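User: Good morning. I'm curious how flavin mononucleotide would be positioned relative to this chain. Could you predict the structure with it bound?
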Amino acid sequence: MLIILHSPIIIDIMGTSKNPIGFLTRSFPLKSDSALLFSGTYGIIALMQALIVYGSSKGRVARIAAIVSETLNKAGISVLSRNVFEVKPSRLLDYPCLILGCSTYGQGDLQQDFLEFERGMDTLDLSGRTAAVFGSGNSRYPYFAEAVDILEAKLKILGAQLLLPGYRQDMMTSSPEGEDTRQWAENLAAAIMQKGGKELKRRIL
Ligand SMILES: Cc1cc2nc3c(=O)[nH]c(=O)nc-3n(C[C@H](O)[C@H](O)[C@H](O)COP(=O)(O)O)c2cc1C
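Assistant: Good morning! Here's the predicted structure, ligand included:
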C-alpha cells in the first residue's frame, strides 16, 4: 500500500478522483491489500521501464546517456543503459520506452557501431512503445546531428511514438554535462511519467 501511495503516477491519478481510496479499490478489483499492492506495483513497473541504447566513438554521447539515465532514475523510472555494441536489436521489444542516443559521422551517417543495429531493427514491430532520441554533432558539418533524424524516422516507421523532439547537442556550444542535457532529460522524464499515467488510467478505468 505504501509503495502505491508513493508512486507519482498513482498520486496523479488519485488527484483526479474525489475518493482516492475508493478509486484505488474499484480500479484494482482484488480484495486483499497485498493483491492491490501487487497489481498496482506491477502495472507501474511494467509501464515505467526504459532502455537506453547509445553509440559513441569519443564518449560524448555516452556522457549524455549517463546524465539521461541518472535523471530518469531520479524521477522514479527504471532504466537500463547499454552501449549499442552490447545489445541486439530484438532487446528493444522487452521495454515499453526506448531511448536511442547516437553521434553523427561521415556525411551525416550514424556512428559506426550503430549502423548494424539500425539495420537489425528493420523487422521489429515497435507499435505501442514510446521513444526518444538524442545525439551529439558539430554544427560546422552540413548534416548537423543527422543521426537523430535518421533514428527518429526509423522509430516512427516501426510504429513507436516519439515523446518529445529529439535532442541535438552541438559540441561547439554545449557540453554533455551542461544544463541543456539536464533540461531535455527532465522533459523526457516528465513525458514518460505523463504517458505512463495516461496509459495506466486507460487500462484501469
Ligand atoms: C570524421 C568526422 C565526421 C563527422 N561528421 C559529422 C557530421 O556529419 N555531422 C555532425 O553533426 N557531426 C559530425 N562530426 C562530429 C561528431 O558527431 C561529434 O564530435 C560528436 O560529438 C561525437 O560524439 P561521440 O564522441 O559520442 O561519438 C564528425 C566528426 C568526425 C571526427
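DSSP finds eight helices and eight strands in the chain. The pocket of flavin mononucleotide is lined by residues 56-61, 103-108, 111, 136-138, 141, 143-146, 171 (CB under 6 Å).
Let me know if you'd like a different ligand tried.
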